Amino acid sequence: MTKIIDLRIKEKIYKSRKSQISILNDFNIEVNTGEKIAIVGESGVGKSSLLNILGLLDRNYDGEYTLFGSPTEHLLTSELAQWRNQRIGFVLQESALINSLTIEDNIKLPILYTGFEKGKSKQDEDFEMVTNAIEIKSILKKKPLECSGGEKARAVFARGIIMKPQIILADEPTASLDAENKERIVTLLFRMNKEFNTTIITVTHDLEIANRHDRVIHLERSK
Amino acid sequence: MKIFKFFISKIFLRKAILGIGMILLLFMANYITNTAARSILSTFQGYQETKYINQKGVYIANLDPNSHIDMDVINENGTQVVYDYLNNSFHYAFYTDGFIVSVPNTDDMKVSLGYMNEEYYELNQFELSQGTDLDFNYQLDEKIPVLIGKGLSKTYPIGSTIIIEESALGRPVTLKVQGVLKQNAYHSNYYALNSKTYYNFLILFPVNEGFINNANIDLQLNGLMDVIILETTQKEIADLREFIENNLGLKFNFFSQKENYEYFNEYYLHSLKIIAITAFVLIIIIACLSIWNALVSVRLMLKDFTINLLVGLSYSRLRKIFYSYFGILSFVNLIVIFAITACDRYGCWLRKDATFATYGLFCLIGMDWFALSVVALLDILIEIVIVESMLWRIKKVPISLGVLQ
């Protein structure tokens, strides 16, 4: 098993308008390729902040982060953007769609930033495969506001995996879904892991879902 | 390009505030800047033109506003006596225009005559595009040498003759084209320096003593209204004032160098300052509104930007997109301002308004291009401020999953 993530945080300061809070003190995490990891903890302990750091969205912390075997602190913002585009997939809540775009355009958004590196036909093939697998072909021409919560959640999932990323970072992907749609999303996540050996890191409040991962990391409030 | 097209069609233009709102604000800023720049430059040109009369020993005639012109009292003998007195005692620059004359031309414009004596001609130092300077030593029964505006040069080349019914002499005279004025030669109004008369369809008629002596009262009186007395003293001017009052019953003011300075500097400099300050304040207000508009747009589109940043957009690419978008908006506005100015200039040709008909690339003359350059410069400055403000606002809320929840 190859180590894909090696993150060592001494401290992360979270600044709000009125105060600043120290989170993720002396937090270290190592993740191997193909692992499924759940991150749980009460609100405010830094679960989403950890995901931001893992997803190269936040570099404002004291620590070291090696991703895919490379230290990330010297990467240019354009390189970070490229990694987010091609190697990391974000699966978020169903509200993370652009309402002025159709579901198809929302799903194809990462392809826009890739150009046709893989070739247009290959990309079309990937899009066909993903939309078929996730069963959202019927809503592709709809706008998010015309879709149900479950449909939107699947669209967000499709966008997160369209580039076949090596890591999927899922932030409360099932938080506002009913039991049936919750199960569909979790099944799809684990299918990605099984079929493509994708590393899954899920932030969740749902312990039942967390316990279905290989490892569960409990985050606690820093003292 | 594909990403830029996507942002234009799918993100920016879907938010009216960033599309229509920004276009309107930029248009207002451009229009005000263009108007102010043209007005300031035109006033400056007028100021430069009148510098030569703003010299020691120069006095400009101006009819006292309280003086009543009584044509029963004024007669040709009276005006002739005044001119005799002027000829014997002073150097004076004579100029009067606005006498329309029937001269067929290819553009079918109304042609006017501008009368000036040698002193006025030498003071102005008109630039010619063809031919030679005016010759003032002619006899009235000879062909009279004239200069013509560029607009007439197609119909009347150098050496050709023009026969006109000369209203000041009350008989036909034959004019010989001696030279062609440089295109867009102009004369500024001494009392409204930003106002100009263009000479493209004017015939500059040389005035000598013989001509004045034979001219009718209209020309003599009109010429007296703006006569410029050169190399004289306050005492001599006082005598002249008294002489005119005794013979014509008209009270004239003659502005001295000091009064000219006061008039030009206080009145026109003041007007220039008011124009510049008003334009500056309006542009600052519009720039602030544009920034506010842009920041509200960012707030409305924060989720859209965040999602794009999550899936592969970088800040540097976003900056390029913003600059390209605002660059296009500015360019569109610049084209509109250009079209308005060109239509305005071309309108003079359609209305056969010879006083304002000008020549230039796409109908625009130098001051128009200068104003458009100022507008373009301002647009670049506004664009930099807006784009950097937007990026500052976007970066202030770090891209994070939290923004989307």
Distance between the termini of chain B: 31 Å
What is the string of SSEs of chain B from the N terminus onward? HHEHEEEHEEHEEEEEHHEHEHHHH
CATH fold-level name of chain A: Rossmann fold
Mean pLDDT across the residues of chain A is: 88
CATH class of chain A: Alpha Beta
Helix content of chain B: 55-70%
Q: What's the name of the CATH homologous superfamily of chain A?
A: P-loop containing nucleotide triphosphate hydrolases
How many runs of DSSP E, i.e. beta strands of chain A? 10
Order of helices and strands of chain A: EEEEHEEHEHHHEHEHE
The portion of residues forming beta strands of chain A comes to 15-25%
| Structural class by sheet pairing and helices of chain B | alpha+beta
**What's the number of domains of chain B?**
2
> Considering DSSP H and I runs of 4 or more, what fraction of the residues of chain A is helical?
25-40%
Secondary structure class of chain A reads: alpha/beta
Strand content of chain B: 15-25%
Sum up the overall morphology of chain A in one term. Answer: globular
**Alpha plus pi helix count of chain B:** 12
Number of domains of chain A: 1
Oligomer: heterodimer
In terms of per-residue confidence, which ranges of chain B show pLDDT below 50 for 5 or more consecutive residues? none
